[in-house]
Amino acid sequence: MREIKRIGVLTSGGDAPGMNAAVRAVVRTALACGIECVGIRRGWQGLINSDFVMLESSSVGHILSRGGTILYTARSEDFMTEKGRERALSTCKMLGLDGIVAIGGDGTFRGALELSRLGIPVVGVPATIDNDIGCTNYTIGFDTACNTAIDCIDKLRDTMQSHERCSVVEVMGRNAGFLALYVGIAVGATAVLVPERELDFQRDVVERIQDSRLAGNTHFMIVVAEGAGSAVEIGEKIRESVGMEPRVTVLGHIQRGGSPNARDRETATRMGYHAVHAFLKSGGDCIVATQEGGIVEIPIEEALAMKKHLQMDRYEIMETMQLGALRAKGN
Fold this sequence. Notes:
The structure is a single chain. The chain is α/β, with parallel strands linked by helices and 331 residues long. It has 2 domains: 6-141 and 260-305, 3-Layer(aba) Sandwich (Rossmann fold); 145-256, 3-Layer(aba) Sandwich (Rossmann fold), CATH 3.40.50.460. It contains 11 helices and 11 strands. It has helices spanning 19-32, 43-48, 82-95, 106-117, 142-163, 178-187, 201-214, 231-242, 262-282, 300-305, 312-328, and strands at residues 6-11, 36-40, 52-55, 100-104, 122-126, 166-171, 191-193, 220-225, 247-250, 286-291, 294-299. It has a 7-stranded mixed β-sheet, sandwiched between helices. The longest helix is centred in the middle third of the chain and has 22 residues, at 142-163. The termini are far apart.
């Protein structure tokens, strides 16, 4: 195993609250171990374009509480090509990098795997608000995104109650319903629509609203994962089927912003620390993941083959809460 003298760190794909905390942990852990650290700006595209900055302890001061990423982030079509990866490899050699810490989601790790096959060791740090990385129980940014969505929906509920209306709220989750289900349980939603569960509009929406109204409720909250359908279209179908005029809110990228909460700061710091030590212990080419409360290292190819399934027991819990409310004729 070769000596580790200098590593790079980058953030790629969609930003997530806590990415800066992870960058900070990587830089300060590296420096504490006598390793130089280079920040690669704008993800894999920055590696292709040789867009970098040397990072010192002062470079990452006061970023623990900041949302977004000081290294910026981007998606790179060039990196998907052999020519683009060769240019990225040339940058690694020019900078004398002995490894790279890549912070991001599934696409980031697939890029990491390709680079590792060219001889540059990579360690992945899972960061995505979707929490859909199969190898890890938790991804940086999920808890903060949930709390942002919950805060917005709580405010919407206040005005929905005042006007006796139905609100349809679209949260992020193109291929995964973790965010929608977690938020739906937390806000006591009338219905939650997720891509993992085939939608029966009559059963999942219309009957939920009708039963809730017969139980005495006059306001209704429908939470929709973006991958389960358009909130605008769901709202229109509610208008046609139930005869009420719903208010549609698409939370969008507001869920990615804001200061990371305690869980995301702490998890990001632990993951960043373990990412650097992964190079020292095993040479890298792994993803650091949370499992059973601890941090483990999983080879990249093995990690990418792992799948995460929506906890349908949580869906059952949500439905039980709704049934109990209807039978008690209250929230």
